[in-house]
Write a structure and sequence with these properties.
alpha+beta, 3-stranded antiparallel β-sheet, 5 helices, 7 strands
Length: 178
């Protein structure tokens, strides 16, 4: 597996994945693009504009002060298929350090339960090695057992549970040493 940033050449495959997300059944308490919010923008932007939006999102000067620069990566399996996406947030801003975490990910519905999420997270954690970040906060809702297992498999050490009064969910907070 490899992680790569989306380009215009990926339009057809990304749109196929997006359509799959849009027509899949929802998991109660988890929305379609949880962990990969950048995909919400596809419905309001052309694909070209979406790629430009992703590029601008990597730089702090293009974002509101409370936002973190971030990079979206597609997870590509050995058959050259997009199996999911993972977003890395590069700055420790308050909302992320409370319950959002520095990494968010999702596996497309047809590719779940194949071990891709664990491999994808492992590759994403490697991207922090030269960034002066020693520990990465990763969170998940307390009932998301699959995500909990992925985080723990990648060395996540449970710190505590945060009760978000705004959305009513409990978030498990894990630290992964880089």
């Amino acid at each position: 597996m490899k992680l790569k940033e989306p380009t215009m050449k990926d339009e057809k495959k990304v749109m196929e994945m997006y359509k799959e997300y849009m027509t899949s059944s929802l998991i109660p308490g988890i929305d379609r693009f949880e962990g990969i919010r950048d995909f919400e923008k596809i419905k309001e932007l052309s694909f070209c504009e979406w790629i430009k939006y992703l590029e601008r999102s990597k730089y702090e000067e293009h974002l509101p002060e409370s936002y973190s620069p971030h990079t979206l990566y597609l997870a590509i399996n050995d058959d050259n298929e997009i199996v999911g996406a993972i977003g890395i947030r590069w700055k420790e801003v308050p909302i992320l350090m409370t319950f959002g975490g520095l990494i968010g990910y999702s596996i497309r519905p047809s590719q779940r339960e194949r071990g891709y999420a664990s491999e994808m997270l492992k590759l994403a954690l490697e991207k922090f090695k030269n960034k002066n970040i020693d520990n990465v906060l990763i969170t998940c809702k307390d009932f998301n057992i699959a995500s909990k297992k992925v985080i723990e498999k990648n060395g996540g050490i449970f710190e505590n549970t945060f009760n978000n009064k705004d959305d009513g969910f409990n978030y498990l907070r894990y630290w992964v040493k880089i």
